[in-house]
Amino acid sequence: MSEAPARHFEPIALSSESTVVAEFVADQRAEHGYQSESELEAAFIELLREQAYEHLPITSEAQLVANLRTQLEALNHIAFSDAEWERFFTTTIAGDKDGIVEKTVRIQEDHVQLLKRDDGSTKNITLLDKRHIHNNRLQVVNQYEVTSTGATAAERRENRYDVTVLVNGLPMVHIELKRRGVDLREAFNQIDRYQRDSFWSGSGLFEYVQLFVISNGTLTKYYSNTTRFQHLSETAAARRAKKKTSSSFEFTSWWADASNAPIGDLTGFARTFFAKHTLLNILTRYCVLTADRMLLVMRPYQIVATERILSRIEISTTYKQFGTLAAGGYVWHTTGSGKTLTSFKTAQLASRLGDVDKVLFVVDRKDLDYQTMREYDRFEKGAANSNTSTAVLKRQLEDPGARIIITTIQKLSTFIAKNKGHEVFGGHVVIIFDECHRSQFGDMHTAITKAFKRYHLFGFTGTPIFAANAGSGGNVQLRTTAQAFGEKLHTYTIVDAINDKNVLPFRIDYVNTVRQADTVVDKQVSAIDTAKALLAPQRVRKVVEYIREHFDQKTKRNETYRLADKRVAGFNSIFATASIEAAKIYYNQFGLQQLDLPEAQRLKVALIYSYAANEDEPDGLLDEEEFETDGLDKSSRDFLEDAIQDYNDMFGTSFDTSADKFQNYYKDLSLRLKNREIDLVIVVNMFLTGFDATTLNTLWVDKNLRAHGLIQAYSRTNRILNSVKTYGNIVSFRNLEDETNDAIALFGNKDATGIVLLKPYQEYFDEYADKVAELQQRIPLGQAIVGEDAQKAFIALFGAILRLRNILTSFDDFAGQGILSDRDLQDYQSLYLDLYQSFRRATDAEKESINDDVVFEIELIRQVEINVDYILMLVVRYRAAHGDGEDKEIKATIDRAIDSSPSLRNKKDLIETFVDDLTITDDVAADWRTYIEAKRAAELERIITEEQLKPAATRAFVDTAFRDGAIRATGTAVTTILPPLSRFSQGSNHSERKQIVLQRLTVFFERFVGLV
């Protein structure tokens, strides 16, 4: 009788307590009838009750506060006296000076508060039990009533919040529902209004909300409280210091199962996301409060990856598999999907495991090192100090209190070589490598794995090395990511990310500027692949001419958006060249072609490179360029020195190619790229991996790219910023189509090409043409749009046209093919803006708002809006042509332009009065400045007089607002301009008076901002 084969059982990786369900199978739909919003709400609440949420009939603040007391007493096994509760509630829970930031910090970091008892003793009061999460009690309330605040009765109205989940009595998750068929953005906009108008009213308990959920039954998304609140809670100066905000719908997240299958239907979402252990895990473990005090909530794929790493550590520790591939693994999450946040949370939670001594986060490139160090420092101050020197790394490794350490693979290797037998090598260590597709191949990998004894090795990568794209050199046992790290623990591909809209799709133009011999076809054809032809002066000149000619179009330079509280025009770009020699030649050519241009018309071009062993590697890897410039030949270093001096002249800096100053040049250049202060950076390999700038939308390519190098480089362009940035733009001067398709197939799937790349121009244009034809037929200009149904149809149709135009304008073929004339487009925009204003007035007048059914693409209008400079140009042109006569044409043109611009409509009377008073001999620009300054001073004096404000203080307050770009509504600054008035005297209405003054000054500010 033969022996039965030995069986191998894998330890459980997912359990019933896993935060994200392993696989979600939707119920077969049995309901087919119409479902109202109230019916949707009732069904959702019933689903929560089935999961043991207690449904409370709370509709007022008094009831909410009473329940909070009861819940905190139960959680903490205490009975508050009335005096204790009053003291604790007013000073700790609902302090007068506390806003959403302070309350979020309290939940995320200071969830245990001190109660001073009547007898003088103290007791810890837990607001949220993070150690034993099922001690927390979940309740649900709906139709909670609150009156929104406002300066006038018309602006105050009753609000009813749809559904709120209370955790230990505190509102922590708010759900806004719309009926099926309504745009999901309307729920998002409703929450925005609640946050602005009423969440902070009364005791401000709704400022404790950490997560928002929006749903129309069919689609459901979630996001953190700072996604909409940051722009309301800080001064303009503070906002400008932020690296990134997520104040738009684009930053909401889908929920999914562990295989990345989305769970959009509210029923499935309620049974998974709102499962008690899932919701409590997200609130207590998978939110991250950054050093900037922004709350980030992790996406499902990030949570799955984190839990699988933690599970692998615990299981391999139990089985004593230290130092083997079974103790580690790698996570394949595509570039741009948030690996830094995932790895940070993984490191943080791993450091809290009972017997783990250290967590080392190891990075390879110094440019990536700086990027990661800065990002990590947002999460945990001081963790990145080990990057300064090997000596600091040694101190941190020997410090029991330093649980998380960031270092480079080079410094870790040096430490190992110099400290044989160090006691840290015997400790229980978790080592996490970022961008592990190249950092763990070779001698350094061997040195690290030989030195440490009880370790777990994990890697994160957006572009793994498989057998199909592995190189042929090096250690044959370390050629693939799996060979170096072990099993793949989780996958989130570029296709997943684009489908989820966590990154943007790519649009690729193949533009070749060398014609093959004897060709007579009148189009650009494939470049000749020889070094001599590729760097021929004629070709270089044509490439630079093409970039300059199409730069505004590709980077949307004629379109504006808000970035860190300032309005900027378009995006910026990187130009990837094949070699240092090519980079030098291209930099010179830009200088030559821009030599005689006025300063305002020149592109701000920078150059950066340093020594790399192989500038174009045959296996597709982008060889790292170090910060050391000593390896450069004299000619290349001298050229770089001159280019950096050009940069110094441009920005008033003092960098050069010496070690420290070159590293600081890199940092300064990267910051100016992120802030959209520079137009184009010519690189060889730098900035093509590991560098994130949301303002980048275009990559110009004149180098051979393939596999992971290609995806890494392309992915510099596809970070989400706003609705204006719709895709990453790739303009390739080499025929990389096959390489692109191969890379997408390798790092996505075989069907990925149609998903990752935008559709062809003709498909967008055909859809655009059909919609314009429908617009002209259904709503001809000059005909009133009568009735709400017709107005809604126009808004939806014209909004779709705006979105299509936004994409089409980056196609060369669209030039001159807009169908609608500029004048017709302006007239339709005017109608669109009139409806927008009327709907807003309807909301303010306590009427039932129809905004629930419509979405206005105002941001897309703003990107093409007319500005004051354009109006003044019209004035000059028409005065020169027609003199000072009563010119109806200029007035009609100016009126049409103003009416089509959101920012100029409230300035119309100023512009028209100015135009009426001009004569042909006037200096228009100078007279405009004088006119506006006089008008601004006169209107401000009227406000000061009518509101009895302090003149000098008010003028200073307003000057600060124009300097910072916003009226400061928070803080004590506004109180310094008010007349003496006791806030405690009877009938003083101090708060109301303050709001009236703020409202008048805000209207004044918006009327005059941007005019001079």
SSE diagram, text form:
Elements: H1 37-50, E1 54-55, H2 61-76, H3 82-93, H4 100-108, E2 112-116, E3 122-126, E4 138-147, E5 158-167, E6 170-177, H5 185-197, E7 211-215, E8 220-224, H6 226-233, H7 236-240, H8 266-272, H9 276-284, E9 287-289, E10 295-297, H10 300-318, E11 329-333, H11 339-351, E12 358-363, H12 366-379, H13 390-398, E13 404-408, H14 409-418, E14 428-433, H15 436-439, H16 443-451, E15 454-461, H17 481-485, E16 488-492, H18 494-499, E17 506-510, H19 531-534, H20 537-554, E18 560-563, E19 566-569, E20 572-577, H21 580-593, E21 605-607, H22 634-651, H23 659-674, E22 680-683, E23 696-702, H24 707-714, E24 728-732, H25 737-747, H26 753-756, H27 761-778, H28 788-808, H29 822-844, H30 858-862, H31 868-882, H32 888-899, H33 908-917, H34 924-947, H35 951-964, H36 990-1008
Parallel strand pairs: 1-4, 6-7, 11-15, 11-16, 12-13, 12-14, 14-15, 17-24, 20-22, 20-23, 21-22, 23-24
Antiparallel strand pairs: 2-3, 4-5, 5-6, 7-8, 9-10, 18-19
Helix pairs in contact: 1-8, 10-11, 14-16, 20-21, 21-22, 24-25, 27-28, 31-32, 34-36
Organism: Cellulomonas fimi
Pfam family, one: SWI2_SNF2
Catalytic activity: Endonucleolytic cleavage of DNA to give random double-stranded fragments with terminal 5'-phosphates, ATP is simultaneously hydrolyzed
